[in-house]
Amino acid sequence: MFELPEFVTLAKQMNQTLKGKIIRRGQLGNSPHKFVWYNRSHEEFESLTRGKIVGDAQAKGKWLFLPLEPGYVLLLGECGGKVLYHTPGSKLPDKYHLYLIFKDGSFLTITTQMWGAMELYEQGQEQDREYIKGMRPTPIETEFTYDYFSNLIEDPLKGKKRSVKGLLTQDQLIPGLGNAIAQDILFRSRLHPKHTLSDLSEDQKRGLYQAILDTVDQVIAHGGRYDETDLFNQPGSYIRLMDKNAVGKPCPECGGTVEKIQYLGGACYFCPDCQV
Ligand SMILES: [Zn+2]
Fold first, then answer.
1. Whole-model pTM?
2. How far apart are CA 95 and CA 69, in angstroms?
């Protein structure tokens, strides 16, 4: 699944590659898939996208906003899979969930891996969508200060018996983070996934905050994680520190053996010696 750094990478590449292109035809998927969330019929999507011009893409949390001007925004979100640019004359993939062909013959296809939103809104209405309206600051925004972060942890309504992994992955508390990036944030901050938020010392809180910023920055700088691909079907160059490949191997920090547990709806990979 894409997380914030992968969406930032896709948005940047779309701005370099798709911006200004005119849509000849837009189509929803040819492969029915009940976990793809559409808000338009095939006919509506085709007529509303025809002749539109691709604007400036933006990423926020696990969402990507692609203006189709004038007047519309294509919203992609909570998805993984393949968002691919194809040069003119390329072969159309057998299966796709969204297809935009441009006047110059190049095209974009989107195929989700598990689920995801592919919705077309009148400009502005996308901001009222569930999960977007009222979205909290993400780690790449200036509002994500240490004071803000500290309040987020201490707010008694949210802090009730929540663990560090819960803070990183549940309820969109920190939008854009997911299970994959959370593993490396926890390792960098030397915290066990089950460490209770209310037990964090001031130093641990500061360490966790810094680990979030540093990890997100590094993954963005590397164009995403190595296990996801970009607009040109190239894997990112960020090699995860703690993932399935690390299990049973020595911890890069202390030499202890990396372990795996299932916790809060996903696998956790951690060093039991240095993550407490
Ligand atoms: Zn260790």
1. 0.94
2. 27
Taking the centre of ligand 1 as the mean of its atom positions, its distance from the CA of residue 35, in whole angstroms, is 39
- With b for 16 or more beta-carbon neighbours within 10 A and e for fewer, the 98-129 pattern comes to bbbbbeeebbbbbbbeeebbbbbbeeeebeeb
Q: How far apart are CA 43 and CA 110, in angstroms?
A: 18
Q: How far is the CA of 218 from the centre of ligand 1 (A)?
A: 21
Q: Dump pLDDT digits (tens) for 79-91.
A: 889 999 999 999 9
Ligand 1 centroid, distance to 270 Cα (angstroms): 8
Convert 238-251 to b/e letters by CB count within 10 Å (16 or more is b). bebbbbeebeeeeb
Mean pLDDT of 162-174: 93
CA 71–ligand 1 middle distance (angstroms): 52
DSSP reduced 3-state for 66: strand
Question: If you ran DSSP here, which 8-state letter would residue 246 be given?
Answer: G
- Average pLDDT on 66-92 reads 95
